[in-house]
Design a protein that fits this description.
This protein has 65 residues and is mostly helical.
Length: 65
């Protein structure tokens, strides 16, 4: 896989990696993992809400009154 970054992104990543004494790859991998985990949770919550909210729509409407 090739990841193409803008010059600014590449410079910032390089600076962060240098600051931490790690490679750019070592800095980027956890950020990608965090992104994927966050979106996986968001997708799961959204799917559950889409499936379950309609079941309780009437009760929620009554509570809102």
């Amino acid at each position: 896989m090739t990841l193409r970054l803008s010059d600014e992104q590449s410079d910032a990543l390089r600076a962060r990696a240098d600051h931490e004494g790690r490679s750019m790859q070592e800095v980027a991998k956890p950020a990608i993992e965090e992104y994927l985990e966050t979106h996986a949770r968001s997708d799961l919550i959204e799917r559950i809400l889409d499936e379950e909210l309609p079941r309780y729509a009437e009760a929620m409407q009554r509570l809102a009154e």
